Amino acid sequence: MISVEKLKETTNDFFKEFCNIDGPTWSEKWKFEGELPHNTKKGCYAHLKGNEVVYVGLAIGNSFDGSGIGARVSKYWKKSENYSVNKQVYLPTVKDVDSIITLPFEPDNFYLAAALEVYLIQKLKPIKNKIHSIKK
């Protein structure tokens, strides 16, 4: 099992080893109610089942507005029957996912999100990610 703490630790390792900077911080769990954290920022996201990271994804999109994390992951939920402007409640559309966490990047370094995603998948091997082979 890959815990959220292990994800955060591995993320910090990436920034220390390759960027020599303190990187951005993962959000609190979003449980499909209200606005997704870092909705309009480019970055990474993770699907969770309880405290287990089951998938790591990338949301850098195109360089136009509407290409943030929210635009990328919006296919993973739908509005619930109880949805209203005052109470935004959603239902996940992915099996075995009960929350999402996000990691925002600033516009001048969002490209690092792509490298981080590959690094996290290679190091952690989340059960719902395809592992890219490394030929030696």
UniProtKB/TrEMBL annotation:
<protein>
    <recommendedName>
        <fullName>GIY-YIG domain-containing protein</fullName>
    </recommendedName>
</protein>
<dbReference type="InterPro" id="IPR035901">
    <property type="entry name" value="GIY-YIG_endonuc_sf"/>
</dbReference>
